[in-house]
Amino acid sequence: MSMDLAPGGVVPHIRSIIPSLLPAERAVAEVFLSRPADIVEMSSQQVADAAGASRASVVRTCQSLGFGGYQQLRVLLARDAARALPTQERSADGPFAIVTETFAHVGDSIAAMTALLTTDDVTRAVDALAGAESIVAIGNGLSAALAADTDARMRSLGLRSHAPTDSIAQQVAVRLLTDRDVALIISGSGATSASTKAAQAARERGATVVSVTSFARSTLAAASDIALVVGMRDLSFQRELAVTSRIPHVILLEGLMAALTDALGDRASAAMAATLEVISGNLGE
């Protein structure tokens, strides 16, 4: 039902359904109605605390309202909130200023990007990837291109890696993993259901799940053995959905590839030599 709601229709829809809800569900729905802009940034547990209910009640309420779950409600509320915002401010100095301001914003965000990374997590991630018999790299939506690029980079280092692009193929691939393998899953929001399902299935098979995401309390992070969390300064869940930036993830993955090259030593050097030989043979005059 919720998938058919027109922009701006989430709050009216909740208001129309609320009289038919059970008391605990009604308390949760009242939080949705009273704080729609805040819900975008709140976890399901925070909503439960605000309603004096359980986390399970939050999920049930979302389902009773016709949504697939809390994450879907958050996304639709983010959509409606973005629609209500004034048009994004534009620099009076034109396109060049906007481009250079973007570079400046990235520079100012470097410290924030690495603030949640730990020595232990990065070391464990590199060790897991370097020692894996095989690796499945997964990304959906705007993260799909990052997974494909990372897959190609890992193969150029001599690692056995592949990156299925179809969500069904991803589900099949992770179910063929063993405890000697790694699933590397990239999702900015950490809430993409296909990516989270792949992480959960990979863990059930005993594989090590390494995730790259922007939110430490996301469903993907919770389903991971090692969650590498990086984001831009002042990143919000709504902003991640509306004006997604993959810059922190690109930089992190570049760093992981450099660390992998060092960890693999001669194996990486030999693989890179073979790769460069192929590339040189395909360059034009």
Q: Could you walk me through the main structural features you see in this protein, from its secondary elements to its overall organization?
A:
This is MurR/RpiR family transcriptional regulator. Keywords: DNA-binding, Transcription, Transcription regulation. It comes from Rhodococcoides yunnanense. The protein is globular and about 70 Å long. Helix 2 crosses helix 4 and helix 10 packs parallel to helix 11. The chain is 59% helix and 8% strand. 36% of the residues are buried. It contains 15 helices and five strands. With 285 residues, it is of the alpha/beta class. Strands 2-1-3-4-5 form a five-stranded parallel beta sheet, with helices on both faces.
Relative helix content: 55-70%
| Widest β-sheet, arrangement of strands | 2-1-3-4-5
Number of helical segments with 4 or more residues: 15
Average pLDDT reading:
87
Order of helices and strands: HHHHHHHHEHEHEHEHEHHH
Please summarize the sheet with the most strands. Answer: 5 strands, parallel
Secondary structure tally: strands: 5
Ends: how far apart?
Answer: 58 Å
Which shape, going by the Cα principal axes?
Answer: globular
The helix/strand class is alpha/beta
Task: Work out the strand percent.
Answer: 5-15%
Uncertain segments are none
Gyration radius, in Å = 21 Å
